[in-house]
Amino acid sequence: MSAPALPPLNVPALLRQHNLRPSKGLGQNYLVDEASLQKITAAAGLGPSDTVLEIGPGLGSLTRHLARAAGRVIAVELDRKLIPVLENVLAGFKNVELIQGDILELDLHTAIRVDGYRVVANLPYYITSAVIRRLLEHGPRPACLVLTVQREVAERICAGPGEMSLLALSVQLYGRPGIAGHIPAGAFYPPPKVDSAILKIDMHPEALLPAGRIERFFQYAKAGFSQKRKTLRNSLAGGLRIPAEKASRLLTEAGIDPQRRAETLSLQEWGRLVEQEDRAG
Fold first, then answer.
1. What are the pLDDT digits (tens) for 112-153?
2. What is the CATH number of the domain that holds 187?
3. Whole-prediction pTM value?
4. Surface-to-core class of residue 143, CB atoms within 10 Å of its CB (0-12 exposed, 13-18 middle, 19+ buried)
5. What is the full DSSP assignment across the chain?
6. Within this chain, do residues 187 and 83 fall inside the same structural domain, yes or no?
7. Within-domain flag for 162
């Protein structure tokens, strides 16, 4: 027999009861649509043995669904004022651990302690890229990330050569992104100005580049995208502060036309460029 459906949270009433208002500065748009909450939970593919890290639980609408599906939920909330509300809403769920803090500063090894955990988050739009990089580069290795982000951001992360960005490279180096569904602005309270997407990132067993080349990879990629309208020959020369002739030679020896632009290169081509630079010394 399946468990009875969770009664929806009355988010506006909860906010009034605790004399709270959604903070624009913290990007607080609470997801209130039950179908969307269920869609996110399903995308995470949770089972009773799974540990979930939820970032920004807000008032606990999604946390309740995660707690029913997973064995353990660690919910990290930045806004101190929301903790009493969360403690009340989640009182019946003994497998939820609340942490008040900043996910960008949290010691993930201490909080999580296991590889293969799953991340689920309705991310404030303004910290999307910073959080993704933090989770992919620090702490125990997650198995997958299920993130509610701006629809345009999700599409940019999933882009291929021709429409690549530094953010897409940052994610695709560590995992395979895909869009698991869409959420209209009206599913939130208050509604944001744009629609959202459920972005699922399945992690690669290891990063697609050796650890010793990753820092150099990002130096090259940041230089290439720093002046997107310029050719790679000129953007790399400016960004890396090397002669244009050297940039041109490195690109040519890596099999890349120096007249191309950064957004046209695949992740593998960026990796080849860094490898060529190592060989050249």
1. 988 899 999 988 777 888 888 888 888 798 999 999 999 999
2. 3.40.50.150
3. 0.92
4. middle
5. -PPPPPPPP-HHHHHHHTT----TTTT--EE--HHHHHHHHHHTT--TT-EEEEE--TTSHHHHHHHHHSSEEEEEES-GGGHHHHHHHTTT-TTEEEEES-TTTS-HHHHT-STT-EEEEE--GGGHHHHHHHHHHSSSPPSEEEEEEEHHHHHHHT--TTS--HHHHHHHTTEEEEEEEEE-GGGEES--SS-EEEEEEEEPSS-SS-HHHHHHHHHHHHHHHHTTTS-HHHHHHHHHT--HHHHHHHHHHTT--TTS-GGG--HHHHHHHHHHHHHH-
6. yes
7. yes
Q: Which value, in Å, is the radius of gyration of the alpha carbons in the chain?
A: 21
Specify if 3 maps to a domain. Answer: no
Find the domain containing 131 and state its range: 11-203
Residue 43: how many CB atoms within 10 A of its CB? 20
Per-residue pLDDT tens for 218-257? 999 999 999 878 999 999 999 999 999 999 999 999 999 9
Tally the domains of the chain: 2
In-domain check, residue 4: no
126 versus 199: the higher-pLDDT residue is: 199
Count, residues in the chain: 281
- Output the pLDDT for position 91: 95
